[in-house]
């Protein structure tokens, strides 16, 4: 997202952002978001799965004080591939922002100022500054803070920065462009880059690690056995109810997902890895339920042993109303990689 040249133009930004498949790094689920000039979120917002935070920018407006973006949020719906079957082509993007509504994002900008001198005995408009230079001396320069305050006060209210107190100034357009570029990199990912993957929960990291190695998940601990090598297999003994969510229900997202779970000798789930994801935030719900479940541990030679257990979870549409809703608007496949609903659980031995 490098901004070329000394300054920043709307044309440059459009070529970088508009129509491109992006991810919102913060995972924020609010549809109106404000960021400061360093790309830090300025409000509290519920956060969710990265699979609910794909974006496509449709409109862009650049002013002296901020960058304003409008677009749509997309959910990632995985279509069944295992990690080693190339997850970069395993998901389709489904628009979840309703028609005629938009996700609105504003990003404050560092302000480019040219130092000015105070006028003798006169008040500078908008900044309430009045000084008189001693005889034979030139008027002192206006401070950056005073000039910033004057510039913000003179701007139309709709164009003022969201957090005026944190805005910095510079005399270099190139520096302001660089600060904006860094803010954009902090807010958006153009794909599942290393930084994006590193921010994901461990169960997703294990999935993408397996994808990078073109293999399926394997426990690192050699003491973890396979179910078919023990005398008594591990089994689930508590009620298991991974919920659906409003996004999946509204868009008719249902299907089966696979998770690899290490069941310890204490009957609790240890490491969990996504094996065959479904997306739309449902994998997070499944992993949370697995982590709270209780199992009867596997036994070998009369002693409990840790085993790798595969769990298949099926998510369904819980209501006829959502089942007969119009088909969701589908986007292109991804270039890179709470309402309770019925479920069923299968165990792969």
Summarize the structure.
The protein is 20% helix and 28% strand.
Keywords, please?
TolA/TonB C-terminal domain; disordered C terminus; 8 helices; five-stranded mixed β-sheet; alpha+beta; 21 strands; 349 residues; disordered N terminus
Describe the structure in your own words:
The protein has 349 residues and is α+β, with helices and mostly antiparallel strands. Among the domains are: 112-160, no CATH class; 197-348, 2-Layer Sandwich (TolA/TonB C-terminal domain), CATH 3.30.2420. 20% of the residues lie in helices and 28% in strands. It contains eight helices and 21 strands. Strands 1, 2, 3, 4, 5, 6, 11 and 20 form an eight-stranded mixed β-sheet that branches. Strands 12, 14, 15, 19 and 21 form a five-stranded mixed β-sheet that branches. A two-stranded parallel ribbon has the order 7-10. The longest helix is centred in the middle third of the chain and has 15 residues, at 173-187.
What's the topology here?
Elements: H1 10-17, E1 21-24, E2 32-35, E3 54-62, E4 66-78, E5 91-95, E6 103-108, E7 111-112, E8 123-124, E9 129-130, H2 144-154, E10 169-170, H3 173-187, E11 188-189, H4 194-198, H5 202-212, E12 225-226, E13 235-236, H6 246-250, E14 255-263, E15 269-276, H7 282-292, E16 295-296, E17 298-300, E18 303-305, E19 307-315, H8 320-323, E20 330-333, E21 343-348
Parallel strand pairs: 2-6, 7-10, 12-19
Antiparallel strand pairs: 1-3, 1-11, 3-4, 4-5, 4-6, 5-20, 8-9, 13-16, 14-15, 14-19, 17-18, 19-21
